[in-house]
Structure formats: structure tokens, C-alpha cells
Amino acid sequence: MEGEASLNNTNFTRFMAILTMEKLDLPPSIAFFIFISGIITYCLILFFHSVLLVTIVVKRDLHKPMYILLFNLSICDLMGATGFYPQLVCSILFQTREISYPACALQGIIIHLYGTGSLLFLTVMSYDRYIAICKPLRYHDLMTEDVLVKLVFIVWSVSIFMIGSVFTLTLSKEICRINIVDTYCNNPSLLKLSCEDTRLVNYYGLFGIALVQGSSILIVSLTYIKILITCLSTKQTQSVSKAMQTCGMHLAVFLSFEVNAFLLLISHRLQSVSPHIRRAFGVSILILPPILNPLIYGLKTKEIRITIFKLLTKVFSV
Length: 318
Description:
mainly alpha, 3% strand, disordered N terminus
């Protein structure tokens, strides 16, 4: 069935529905290459993040705010990769783009939690860098263990509440279509399955985008302006260079994630946007950050890099 589907208006029928995701249209040779690449990439993501997580857990010297926030960012990356790669690999392996409605909803929830959580943790990390650079003498007073726990709790609570509420609204709608207009399941594509009035959900979604992304941009902008002013006013060249290098990497990761997420979410609400562009933004936000984040924050951070090399040396020398 394509386009319209004859579905009874019952929750049982809706949750038993089999949906069809957008076709990949890949030649057999390209499909095989993507299949192998997907498996290798997902395994590398699991390996890199597992090493990073274990390193932060076992090394007490790394039980500091910056590394605890990095720990949570890594969990978000694992959620995003796990929500995307296994389903993609299975669809290529079994040569089918069908997915059950509950599985599609679960994939969408996991991917949206990854996006919202990653964005908010990157925002909190910018605040942590602001305190460390602009108020170094008060850092331990301002970023206490209690404050850190509260910040982590707030990020996860906001992410779960925002995603939970918007998906509750979306999943409450009866569906009359079975075609997912994307390469993976997400809230906008699930919402497009409904023939009911979805304006309320759309308005709430736009409100969520404005609240989360707007506040993130505002906080990151203010913190980096303060950091830049502090770096320009200090005369310690070596400290300034180190601070700018660390903050530059973080800012590049944040801007890349922010732009991709914003354009992806807006592209679903603008009919004039090419589906190929929407697909490119959607895939890039799930492929690049989970791969690059452990390399950027892990190998580029001296304390983590040294600890990882020591742990791997012990493991392979046994």
C-alpha cells in the first residue's frame, strides 16, 4: 500500500501497523559497501565511546565537571548511533524498508533524546568552560558536586519531558498513511502519517525548538563572548592559546550540531525544501557527531589521551 492506507481508528490497529520508510534506491554494489561501512562505523563508535566511558569511570583524576559532562555527552552519542545504525544495517541486509509502528516510534524517541540531550550538554559544557576561564579562582566553589548533579539532572529531565510530551501528542493522533518520508523515523515523519489536524503538535514542536535551541544559542553566545573578552584582556599567551584551542573545538562541535539540527527540523515544516537536502541533514547529524566527539574531546584532551593509552597498554600486554 502506498500513500493512503485503510486503517481502522483503533489504537490496536494503529500500533500493529507496518510502515514503509523512504527507499534507499541503492545499486547492489553500493548497498553492500554501505552495509559493511555501517557495521564497521557502528562498531568503531561503540569501541571509542566505551573506551572513553570506562576511562572516565576508572580514573579518579577524571571525576571532574568537564569529564562528567563529557561522559553524559558520550551516552547521548551512543543513543543516537544505536537508534540509527542497527536499523539501517538490518534494512539493507533483509532488503526491506518496512518497520512496525512501535519500533518506528521507539527509534524516533531515541534519536530525538540524543539530539536534545547532546545540544543541552554542549551548552552546559560551554558554561563550565566559562567558569574555568573567566572565574578560575572560584571554579571549585561555583562548580561543586551538587551543582554538577543538578545540571545533569536538569538536562536529562528537560530532554525527557520535551521529547516525551511531543511524542505523546504525536502518537495520540490516528494515522491514515503508512509511508515514512525519511530514511529513519522521527517525530515530523510520524506526524505526517496522520490525517487529523496537527497544528497544535506543530506549534508545540516549534515552541520546543525555539525554547531549547534558542536558549542554547543564547547561553553559548554569552559565555563565549565573555571567554573571548577574558582571553583578550589577559597577558598570559600560553594560557590564552590553550583556552582558545579548547573552546574553539567545543564551539565548532556546537555550531555544527546546532546548524544541522535546526535545518533538519525546519526542513520538515517547509514544503519547498528538497527531500534530498532534508535527507542529507538528517543523516549527517547522526553520523558525524558520534564519530568525531570521542576523537575531538578524547584524543585532544591530554589527561584522557594519556589515561586511554595507559589502559590500552595494560590490556594488550596481558
